[in-house]
């Protein structure tokens, strides 16, 4: 297990380096024109453009430009050229909001998807199984921004059951924190519940036909024990993979629409506003942050793979 962990950590470092080079190229090398002009924004002045060129090393070699960019990203030394705020501080301010949204929604969609997927697989061919499958497809088909807008309007604005957007820190009032996030959690989870339950249903149905499942039943084990200890454990491998990637993407600003609809002012909404303002430093930082979360959580998923199925530890990077 130790050698497996070492291999995965080494691969993670290499992937992060490759992503940093690719991100640098996308922002500073591939687009036509000078990068300092793009960073200076719409209301640029010649003095501002020249200052950005010297600050970022755009008048020097590519290696120096890359090193300077990565140093600014990882030390938090990025300044927004739209309002002069420090990008690192803005991301740290929005990260607890995004983290609260991501963790609550991830736990919700994972729990409901497992329950719905397992139930629809066990009841396959019956009316109840067909209905759960239909509900999953409906969930996949509904856009997050549309569901969120309906919830916010009818349950928040008109009915007054939930706050009409906004955020309360967990440390100030845990109940108000959860109350403000119930609708965002639900809106963000609906799509994932549909996708995950369909994937799990297919995986469970394939696993139930395996020889070791028939052997477990032949030994006299209860159906519940067979489903939980033999079928569900092996069927969770594709779900764990999806969960790690989706959770990392949400943490890295992937919940832009949900945050915007409910005005959470998280990392995703900050990135969306920066794109609208053509403010390059925040977009660069959020892009690297999202890539970091996805790669790290993908490594965690591989470790969970090894826990669920020890055969994966042998010869896998």
Describe the 3D structure.
- The chain has helices at residues 2-29, 35-40, 46-56, 62-75, 87-122, 127-141, 144-158, 174-207, 211-218, 223-254, 256-261, 267-276, 280-308.
- By secondary structure, the chain is mostly helical.
Defining traits:
317 residues; mainly alpha; MetI-like fold; 2 domains
Question: How would you summarize the topology of this molecule?
Answer:
Layout: H1 2-29, H2 35-40, H3 46-56, H4 62-75, H5 87-122, H6 127-141, H7 144-158, H8 174-207, H9 211-218, H10 223-254, H11 256-261, H12 267-276, H13 280-308
Short characterization:
With 317 residues, the protein is mainly α.
Distance between the termini: 12 Å
Q: How many strands appear in the DSSP assignment? A: 0
Total of helices: 13
Structural class: mainly alpha
Low-confidence stretches: none
CATH topology of the largest domain: MetI-like fold
CATH-assigned homologous superfamily of the largest domain: MetI-like
Mean pLDDT reading: 82
Beta-strand content: under 5%
Total number of distinct structural domains: 2
The CATH architecture of the largest domain comes to Orthogonal Bundle
CATH class group of the largest domain: Mainly Alpha
Helix and strand succession?
A: HHHHHHHHHHHHH
